[in-house]
Write a structure and sequence with these properties.
159 residues, alpha/beta, Rossmann fold, 6 strands
């Protein structure tokens, strides 16, 4: 079974959204029924990927960074989507961090990079804004020798 993990920005500008979705679909093609998708289900790239992976018949593994992770979803619709995707997961990995900190986010991203065959990075190529951001996880995955597929529309900056 092939394992594809995701890391990416929470905010994806509308000008980049179609290219991000197509890049994710392209990565999932041909793996129907033999794919494990790894995601932390954060708003943005993580939930987009989880939705598409489930639609392609993948098994979803959810990596929960901390005990209070749900408190990071102040928007009710985002929290409901997180809970729905989490309920559809085949497997859940809960990290031992009690609180959602940059270290917890980094550990979740590192777990995904450690356990995937390929990492999809919805990334504008810029440095992470805090420890555990997309740029940090891409760097970590590359130090492991993990193949990384960057998906972004050139010339578009994230919000």
């Amino acid at each position: 079974m092939k394992r594809i993990g995701v890391t990416g920005h929470r905010s994806i500008p509308m000008e980049a959204r179609a290219q991000v979705l197509e890049g994710m679909r392209a990565a999932l093609r041909g793996h129907e029924g033999s794919l494990e998708a790894l995601s932390s289900l954060a708003v943005g790239a993580d939930t987009l990927f989880a939705d598409l992976a489930l639609a392609h018949g993948a098994e979803l593994t959810v990596v929960i960074p901390s005990g209070d992770y749900e408190s990071g979803f102040p928007d009710r619709a985002d929290l409901a989507r997180y809970r729905m995707l989490r309920a559809r997961a085949t497997r859940e990995v809960r990290l031992d961090f009690p609180h959602s900190t940059d270290e917890a986010y980094y550990a979740a991203g590192a777990y995904i990079a450690d356990h995937c065959d390929r990492l999809l990075a919805v990334w504008d190529g810029r440095p992470a804004r805090g420890l555990g951001g997309t740029g940090d996880i891409v760097t970590y995955a590359r130090t492991l020798g993990r193949p990384v597929t960057v998906i972004w529309r050139e010339g578009v900056e994230r919000g």
